[in-house]
Task: inverse folding
């Protein structure tokens, strides 16, 4: 009996070593924000064509690009999802490993919302107020002190009298990067003392988030944040627009500078906290792994990322019509991006 | 011990009790009893707290999850128009398969609401049925091509929003902006309900489908097959390796520093966090051997590393529990060491070994962390047909669904947890039964 099992095991091992080649499905890695969209496109692609549905892994933008840039070959992914643009350093790492031609496809926008329970009032915040509420150090009487604000109305008497408690993503998340860039940096510019700073000191002042309980890192699970908001009506949560859209009966997005985060406001660019989402394709794999071109054609088709497309149903904010046409051409023509522009 | 007449007692002074002895001893006894009662109560309390926590966990999972076993369907009269599906009358599945079945379903739905002419109203109607309903209808027609050209009532899978609404998870009185279903859609649902065209049925799709972005079409089949392959590879590799290692260490290995060192390390490995095995699998199987990412074979190899220590430790305990007299008796009548082990020791230790193996496997079945590193936490639509195809596993599916924004995935997450728990209970039950059946006592 044991000898039999051993031989089966040996055969299994040998077989596995032999089958490492040949891959017929597209592999996608990357951002958890883009994941709902690329999986939907993958599923539709699998249903509509004879190609198998691509396999999508949610690794986070940074982790995904790292895998993507590991090199060319079947063992590496073909497509990377990113909730921010690829960084210069990442493009360099790619080039060093032989990944030279990359097609950059902007698929649409995502709004970042600051939401609270529907049981509470809808608030109207400004980036400056959010910065003052969440920064680690804020200027007071000409010098930087540890953030003294405990309640929102400490910052501005017009704000509600409730404790500052914001649940948000951890530093590893692309959503956090975007939040820092679009809210904290902007708010920082509106405070004269921090706006006057320069270099690393400014970066530290603008981007360091308080750690005394005002901001709670709630992990990558946005559903969990939604549930916590439902339980605690004083708390705010930070997450992508698609979670707000799916849970609109429980939570509401706060207005930022007077604009509420709804589909039209984000699409038109009126809502200030929105970011573009990208998909990067490894050109060297086109033609080697079957179906990459057809998949990108499906992903960028009007039925997918158009205004009434299935990706819009999932919460993707579509590109303006002209841009969408350009993106479609880039994606189907596999025009490599100019990395010197990064 | 006799009660004979008391002789002058030499020990009377020793036996003489000091003042208040009775009371003190009674108090002491009472205190001892009280201490015992307190200890018992504490133990009972611990059990009760554990049971209560388990009950809370289970009841919340069941309460959230039982709804997922039912799915809302809408009965729609669908005209499978031959002019649309198969204009040349070829009967060729290639041609029929390309037909726009979703449009046929929508047209059937519009037929039920003839007054809805404008696009926005019709758009509300299209949201009633699943956007993937065409796939199921298509399969039905391909299975029975004679349906082409007929009009019949077909039960169509409702969209997740309608399903959640029917289950009461979407409040009817919420402000219109705050609910996914608008007034028009709700009015349509009410009419369908009054006509008996909407009902909840047992959700077979949950068991037969792979993963999907549409909650109403998402199922655990792909994950179950993936988990099956994982367990197969793990069982085939870890059992012979683990039992072999334990046999050698217990029966053949000389007592030396080297074997002591190995023993310490095996016990250490049993306590290593599972993510470390994932990193090891990533470096060795994917990095060094270039094996395919996300494949159950790699997952199985990684889980093998993780279960080995459990199996080695359990097997050694089982071997040690075989009485030495059996050993010596076999050796005494001239059996070789190998004969002794194969004919006597192993069969007697088998129930213990099997229990160890099954518990090790059950542990591996619920593991996600090592699979994360080797790419098995992924969106995979098709169930794997071999252990080399990309796939997920049951706990991974739970993790992925828990993180999805759609409301309907919440109940599916809990349903998948219930299914995983059922598998775990089944495996542990088998372990108990095997032990009962084969265990011998001396």
Result:
């Amino acid at each position: 009996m044991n000898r039999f099992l051993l031989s089966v095991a040996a055969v299994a091992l040998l077989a596995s070593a032999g089958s490492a080649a040949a891959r017929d499905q597209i592999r996608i890695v990357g951002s958890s924000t883009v994941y709902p969209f690329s999986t939907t496109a993958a599923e539709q692609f699998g249903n509509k064509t004879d190609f198998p549905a691509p396999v999508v892994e949610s690794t986070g933008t940074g982790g995904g690009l790292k895998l993507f840039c590991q090199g060319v070959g079947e063992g590496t992914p073909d497509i990377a999802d990113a909730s921010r643009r690829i960084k210069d350093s990442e493009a360099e790492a790619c080039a060093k490993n032989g990944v030279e031609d990359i097609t950059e496809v902007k698929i649409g926008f995502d709004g970042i919302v600051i939401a609270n329970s529907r049981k509470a009032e809808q608030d109207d915040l400004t980036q400056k107020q959010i910065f003052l509420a969440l920064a680690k150090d804020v200027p007071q009487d000409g010098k930087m002190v540890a953030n003294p604000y405990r309640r929102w109305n400490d910052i501005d008497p017009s704000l509600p009298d409730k404790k500052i408690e914001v649940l948000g993503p951890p530093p590893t998340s692309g959503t956090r990067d975007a939040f820092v860039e679009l809210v904290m940096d902007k708010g920082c510019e509106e405070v004269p003392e921090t706006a006057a700073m320069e270099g690393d000191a400014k970066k530290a002042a603008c981007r360091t988030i308080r750690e005394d309980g005002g901001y709670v890192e709630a992990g990558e699970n946005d559903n969990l944040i939604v549930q916590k908001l439902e339980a605690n009506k004083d708390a705010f949560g930070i997450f992508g627009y698609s979670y707000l859209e799916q849970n609109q009966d429980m939570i509401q997005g706060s207005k930022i500078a007077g604009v509420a985060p709804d589909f039209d406001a984000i699409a038109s660019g009126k809502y200030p906290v929105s970011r573009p989402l990208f998909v990067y394709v490894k050109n060297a794999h086109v033609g080697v792994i079957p179906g990459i071109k057809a998949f990108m054609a499906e992903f960028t088709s009007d039925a997918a990322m158009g205004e009434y497309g299935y990706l819009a149903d999932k919460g993707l904010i579509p590109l303006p019509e002209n841009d969408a046409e350009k993106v479609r051409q880039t994606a189907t023509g596999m025009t490599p991006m100019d990395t010197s522009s990064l | 011990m006799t009660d004979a007449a008391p002789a002058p007692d030499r020990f009377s002074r020793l036996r003489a009790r000091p003042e208040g002895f009775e009371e003190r001893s009674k108090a002491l006894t009472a205190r001892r009893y009280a201490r015992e009662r307190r200890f018992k109560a504490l133990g009972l309390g611990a059990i009760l707290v554990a049971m209560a926590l388990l009950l809370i966990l289970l009841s919340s999972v069941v309460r959230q999850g039982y709804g997922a076993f039912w799915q809302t369907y809408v009965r729609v009269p669908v005209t499978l128009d031959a002019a649309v599906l198969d204009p040349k009358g070829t009967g060729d599945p290639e041609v029929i398969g390309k037909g726009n079945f979703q449009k046929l379903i929508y047209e059937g739905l519009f037929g039920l609401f003839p007054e809805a002419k404008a696009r926005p109203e019709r758009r509300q109607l299209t949201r009633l049925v699943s956007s993937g309903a065409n796939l199921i209808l298509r399969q039905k027609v391909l299975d029975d091509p004679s349906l082409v050209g007929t009009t019949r009532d077909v039960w169509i899978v409702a969209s997740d929003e309608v399903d959640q609404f029917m289950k009461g998870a979407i409040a009817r009185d919420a402000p219109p902006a705050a609910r996914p279903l608008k007034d028009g859609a709700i009015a349509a649902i009410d009419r369908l309900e009054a006509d008996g065209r909407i009902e909840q049925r047992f959700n077979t799709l949950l068991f037969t489908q792979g993963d999907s972005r549409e909650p109403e079409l998402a199922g655990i089949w792909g994950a179950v097959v993936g988990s099956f392959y994982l367990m197969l590879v793990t069982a085939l590799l870890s059992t012979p390796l683990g039992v072999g290692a334990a046999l050698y260490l217990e029966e053949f290995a000389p007592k030396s520093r080297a074997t002591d060192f190995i023993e310490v390390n095996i016990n250490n490995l049993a306590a290593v966090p599972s993510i470390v095995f994932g990193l090891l699998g990533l470096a060795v199987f994917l990095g060094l051997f270039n094996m395919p990412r996300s494949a159950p074979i790699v997952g199985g190899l990684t889980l093998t590393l993780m279960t080995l220590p459990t199996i080695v430790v359990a097997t050694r305990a089982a071997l040690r529990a075989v009485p030495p007299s059996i050993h010596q008796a076999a050796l005494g009548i001239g059996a070789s060491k190998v004969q002794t082990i194969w004919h006597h020791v192993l069969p007697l230790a088998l129930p213990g070994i099997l229990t160890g193996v099954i518990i090790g496997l059950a542990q591996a079945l619920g593991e996600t962390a090592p699979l994360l590193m080797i790419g098995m936490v992924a969106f995979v639509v098709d169930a794997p047909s071999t252990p080399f195809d990309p796939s997920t596993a049951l706990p991974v599916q739970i993790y992925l669904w828990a993180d999805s924004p759609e409301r309907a995935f919440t109940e599916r997450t809990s349903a998948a947890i219930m299914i995983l728990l059922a598998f775990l209970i089944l495996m542990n039950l088998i372990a108990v039964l095997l032990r009962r059946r084969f265990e011998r006592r001396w």
About this structure: The longest strand of chain B covers residues 70-79. Strands of chain B lie at 70-79, 151-157, 198-202, 378-379. Chain B has two domains: 69-203, 221-438.
